[in-house]
């Protein structure tokens, strides 16, 4: 009998395919690039918040300080002449940088409102986040006042002022209304140093209105801001149990304590036309609060361990105080007043430059 020949069995080996190493077609490459770009943008939009407008706020008020300091003044003190050596080009570049920063942040936050409205809603109902809703509009008003191309007498100035003030009024009605109508949102329960942003918004609006000659509007916004500031200052000064909820990383916002009276002195000076007794009293109050805070560096020790956008909260109040000191020095024309002006102005500029450098060094692109 013939032997049956055994046929060798064939084994089919399937090799694993690494799709990541395969060459991509042009269509696949463009699709993946689009997905990555959308993911990166989504990460940026979810992380950005209204507190980032501290940057534009600081740059805008810094531009206003430079505009005031480089203006030629008849019979100016010799210390004031130091600032006249600053070229106008430097001021223009600073103002352009502030405008670019504000436009970028406004565009990103607008996209967040459209694509991640739930995150914006959470921020609006946060007792700290809601106060920084005023920051973009304050930045626009400060940028308008320091503008080298739009004079206060121009029609465009008035139209832009109205455009920027309407959101401030809407936020006023919302926040001030809930302070005395809602049980869980009483001022004694939600008050914190960032609550002074609402006051600053009204005072900056008053300052801009007075510069274009709308005295009645200026008095209206000043009275609204100063009335709520008096109540808020007393509430914060008492340190009630409900309003002592500022995290250690956000302690730089304590500098807002002297930002509000500084802006109030400037606003009242614009309404009256000169730096009168009331403006001087508000300036001295802000100077005292500034000295009280800088004499306690341990208060800010924890917040300085790691960089945060909250560091920009140092710059705006310092610059507002420097502007008030410049107006005070111009009124009294004394050597000591000009020394204070020179010291505060240099500190303000140095802090702003250092924050720009540190921020640039700490920018991190989102990881995919």
UniProtKB/TrEMBL annotation:
CDD domains the record matches: TDT_SLAC1_like
Presence of the UniProt keyword Cell membrane in the record: yes
Segments crossing the lipid bilayer: 90-111, 123-143, 155-173, 185-210, 216-237, 249-269, 281-299, 311-329, 335-363
InterPro entries: SLAC/SLAH (IPR030183), SLAC1/Mae1/Ssu1/TehA (IPR004695), Voltage-dep_anion_channel_sf (IPR038665)
GO biological process, one term: intracellular monoatomic ion homeostasis
Swiss-Prot/TrEMBL keywords: Cell membrane, Ion transport, Membrane, Transmembrane, Transmembrane helix, Transport
Pfam families: SLAC1
Location of this chain's protein in the cell: Cell membrane
Cell membrane recorded as keyword: yes
Single Gene Ontology MF annotation: voltage-gated monoatomic anion channel activity
Bilayer topology annotation: Multi-pass membrane protein
GO cellular component: plasma membrane
Signal peptide: none
PANTHER family per record: OS01G0247700 PROTEIN (PTHR31269:SF22), S-TYPE ANION CHANNEL SLAH3 (PTHR31269)
Assembly: Homotrimer.
Family of this protein: Belongs to the SLAC1 S-type anion channel family.
Task performed by this protein: Slow, weak voltage-dependent S-type anion efflux channel involved in maintenance of anion homeostasis.
Name this polypeptide is given: C4-dicarboxylate transporter/malic acid protein
